[in-house]
Amino acid sequence: MRKYIDYMKIGIKEHMVYSSSIWATFLSKVVYLYMQFALWNALFASNAEKSLALNHEETIRYIIVATVLSTIMECNVIGWINSEIQTGNIANQLIRPMDFRTMIFSKHFGTTLIKTVLYCIPLCVVTGVAFHKPIVCDGQLGFGFVSIILAFIIQFLYSLIIGLMAFWLIVTWPLNMLLAAIYKLLSGSWIPVAMFPDLLGKINAFLPFRAIYSIPVTIITTPMSQENILRNLIVQIVWIVILYIVMTVTWRIGKKKLIVQGG
């Protein structure tokens, strides 16, 4: 257990190496949040007569929470695995007396912890000061935190599956770029899933992406019945089970196909 804690510390230290990068990242997130706020205000101002799935205030609350949540949902597992394979360091990682996947999770978890402290909490303060209306449903925050944890696991498993595919594809960045665009759209990170056209919404219901952003953000910002909340949490748990099985199969096949190069 101690060795995994050490990797968690490595993830924290690596992210804190350059203080200028930390400030630049935080300011970029503030600017992005302001751009989202301005964009949606303009869209609702120009379409005031049209009826949308979410009203102006509901949409702004959704975008604020989704932007804050994005600071802890970012995952660099795919890029890290690609780099290790291309440099040949993957051979050293695999012979270490620890589970490769747990090691990656520990390092990613450490990075997420420091991101929560450096970005998520300050962004919550900034939005609380700038947006003078209630943003979250206090009675659902407990369920919201549980949903965020489940979403974090889904995001990690999804990223790990794509990263492990590099064991036989060698380079996965073209696939990653394609899937990242699809993921950003369908997860509800950019646009609330409730605003999707009917056909796209029905297709998306059978994909794991909405379980990463849409479900936790909706639970946090929109009043829901306890039955509906539990139904959404079950959806997330089901996707965790499915993705874990896919990840395990990908891992077993990938170890046999891996070709170490570089180094």
Automatic annotation (TrEMBL):
Signal peptide: none annotated. Keywords: Membrane, Transmembrane, Transmembrane helix. The keyword Repeat does not apply. The keyword Signal does not apply. The chain crosses the membrane at residues 21-40, 60-81, 113-131, 143-171, 178-197, 203-221, 233-253. This is ABC-type uncharacterized transport system, permease component.
